[in-house]
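re: ur question from yesterday

yeah so i grabbed the chain u mentioned. its 463 aa long if i counted rite. heres the sequnce exactly as i have it in my notes:
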Amino acid sequence: MPAAVELRGKRVLVVGLARTGIATALFCAARGARVTATESRPESEVAEAAAKLRAAGCALELSGHRTETFLEQDLILPSPGVPADTPDLRVARAKGVTVWSELELAYRFHKGRLIGITGSNGKTTTTSLIAHLLQGAGAPVILAGNIGTPLIARVEETSENSISVVEMSSFQLELIATMRPDIGVFLNLTPDHLDRHESLEAYGTAKARIFENQTAKDFAILNADDAPTVRYAPAKPQVFWFSRRKPVEQGAYLRGAEIVFRRNGTEEVLLEASDISLPGAHNLENVLAATAAARLAGAGTAGIADAVRSFAGVEHRLELAGEIRGVRYYNDSKATNVDATLKALDAFSGGVFIILGGKDKGSDYTVLRQPLREKAAQALLIGAAAEKIAGQIAGSVAIERAGTLERALDIAQRRARPGHIVLLAPACASFDQFENYEHRGRVFKQLVRRLAENGASLSAEKG
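ran it thru and got these structure tokens back, copy pasting raw so excuse formatting
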């Protein structure tokens, strides 16, 4: 059991009023903490959240942060979007103020078993699939984390018999103290969030903290095919691997057309690779990781194949948004880094009109050049990163600066022919034009529906 924490009467500062910050502030206030919530945006932009928090008894400091407020606290809980090394947080830590992520606080109240999933790509799909497999096995499952609902918002639902399956980001993991998953999964490591983490090594180190507090009775699952991830294999927990390229001593791997799980010298066939309906080699890796985690969590072999077959995937991850006149439209708005876009392209044989762009995260887009040359019919660029992307992929594919998602779709639907693919896989964050990647994906799907319903170009509709 995690060490309990008493919040009643404690001075608690929540930094940032996005989804996690709101849930954290309400949780602490309900337990008698003296909560202050601080946000850089003005009240006009957070009016609904401000009203909710005031009703719960929270004090608010909006339109900026006061260093003095940080120094007056017993506990500070930054939202995931707040860098851990901001000057105010550094000063507070230097003065001895405790700084935790929401994930650490939730862990202090958590009951039952905990499965944590991290990695650069595939977290949401793998987290959802593990939950789906365990639910199919009859386990009481709590699905939470960076996947959409913060763990702090669901922690009261946990029990001694429940299993929480939680997506964990590097931003959350870099501010843990004691958080310890019974099963920790590290899927892969590719350059991402380098606008926030100073290097790939710093980014990987933050993610590897998922194993930091594990003991010999816990399990760590890593990708044997991903060299950057292999180096973070921990010493204390029992290490299991997954691989689509080679057998592993302990874990799940692809053997011919079969997915095999090996443990303590015993092998069992879990399913056929043909049971996986999700496109792309990366989804095979996600299934390998998920089935290994589910077996270690106690799911039997009997229902695994059926559960994988019935898994429809997750929203915004290579999600088929529609087919119009023989052209298929795929929403991969969750492809917020270059490696995710590479994986999306790898799922198709060619004829792809790809929509790229958004808010740059310090990425190198030159690695897209060869796959674009091989797979893409045209690259349609949107958002703030359009010029950087254009410069780095020039000469590999026909480029058009569409500016907006709406115009990119209009261009694509006019030029695509039966058998072509229109793919939103931006390789960028969404915050220049959208609230988040979910908002971007929803807008994409709405625009595709408009095209399907009206049978006319989006620009023509405006006239």
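noticed a couple things. The longest strand covers residues 266-272. also The CA atoms of residues 76 and 149 lie 20 Å apart.
anyway ttyl
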